[in-house]
């Protein structure tokens, strides 16, 4: 194969380079083909480029294309150098000065077609130098000589190249909703990498650039460049650029929160949010002033885009410390007032709901009374909105139901069982109204995932205390389970049904057979998402808690399903497939947990001989599972199932007590330093005693 590669590389070399060295412009299209061939076949020349003469000839020929070819060929030449950097970085000393000059010339022309590739060349250089710096630091710490050393190309170019790149960032801000990768995107990434490779130089440069361009007499374009330059470097090196300069930056940014241009105000808000996200302590002394200006602008100037995000950052980082107690009531009522007035404005209401949720979630004990005083109004007002003349329109054209349900979720997670009965009844009535109008609307599955998450939170929090409401929701949940085309909806609904079985117990019996029919039908459907099957097996275990006669009545149908799943685990998975491996683990855990629940709720009415025949597969399954996977969770589940079977069936006790692999695992568990494992081992050992 080496001979074949050598033959190809020699012939491609002979074919391509005479064409590239032609000075006649009639060869431009042929040159384009030659450069594309060269770009695609660089690996062929690895052996040839080890010699200095070949390497120098190769690099100089590509450099010549920048002066003797059209823009398309120059672009491909940049791509070739970009691809060469990882492997030939230490051999570029003679060519980088030329590439630097060509890059500056290219950036001045602002031809987006070629500018992107020129910028990405320097991104690759910066990334390589940052990588070398990291490896060198590790080597020196370990007492080794680094394998290679940085040539400091980025530091040498940092006096001028970033200034060109800063101006490209403004276009990125103006076109932020466009998906196209252009020079503005490339410039942002390049500054980010450069700030990591040459942090000291970039900090000095951006500080002076920001100070110069945020003066009062500067144009909006220059001010936008300053904010975006700060953001690009800040995302690269974080809070290090604030050391000794935090007061300077805060003064400039806060001053621009009050300017008339909405875009400048938006960028100032965004910059403060970035600082807050890195460390809330940076803003503590200016918090009152910032929150006053931001919230005033948020209410009065809806066109300012980033204020809601910055307010969220402030609430998340400083809210729990009580920094907003002095204005909490005013903020809360201002949000609610704006929300009720602007609920038809989707973007605006989304922002208001997001801020409201963040405010509640990050509030302190002192603000609890203020929040509780708003709940009746929230429920009353939105009941009024939903029960308007055309509720279906509200559900189909608006995302407010999703936002409302998130707020309810936050309230329940935050305050849980501290909520009074009257409030809980209002809350459950509200959920019932949402379900009713959701089922009436034509927009199916529009917000059922969010609603299911909320129902799951309520069931988990309040258990059996509000069983009459929970029972009313079961038909809705079964309808969601039947929607097997929507994987997430089905998964959530199955999990909630399992929780309801445990919470309601005997009260779930009227729905038992219908639920079983639906779940068994889904389990036998090979077209469903494979992540759903483990959830169904776990749910069968939860159903055993609903009635004492569940096991004798249904085990003829249920146990064969577990047996089929155990065979599926052993034979139907693809090796080296991470998704397949994860699914296999989930299925094992579901089989073990489900079987334990079924055995624990075994009735005295059952025929022991019949059940023993149905479980003849389980010893072999347990042994294979333990041999294949000795992870702690799987091993614990296996040992616990062995204990449950031994306590309930004497026949299994006799079999398990003679198995040496079981005794070995129990010996390990009983000698474990972990209290839980030791208890499990002792309990199972006791259950095996005849």
Describe this structure in words.
This protein is 74% helix and 0% strand. The chain has 690 residues and is an all-alpha fold. Helix 16 packs parallel to helix 18 (368-386). The longest helix has 30 residues, at 112-141. The relative contact order is 0.03.
Condensed summary:
This protein has 690 residues and is mainly alpha-helical. It has helices at residues 2-20, 28-40, 52-68, 71-88, 96-109, 112-141, 153-157, 161-174, 183-197, 199-213, 220-237, 246-255, 262-278, 287-300, 307-318, 328-341, 346-361, 368-386, 391-397, 400-415, 421-440, 448-462, 467-482, 487-504, 512-523, 532-543, 550-571, 578-600, 608-614, 618-628, 632-648, 650-657, 660-670, 675-687.
Global geometry: globular
How far from one another are the termini? Answer: 69 Å
Biggest pleated sheet:
none
Bin the helical content: over 70%
Stretches where pLDDT is under 50 for at least 5 consecutive residues are 172-178
Count every helix, treating DSSP H or I runs of 4 or more residues as helices: 34
Strand content: under 5%
Give the beta-strand count.
0
> Which structural class is indicated by helix and strand composition?
mainly alpha
Q: Characterize the quaternary organization of these chains.
A: single chain
Quote the average pLDDT: 82
Radius of gyration: 34 Å
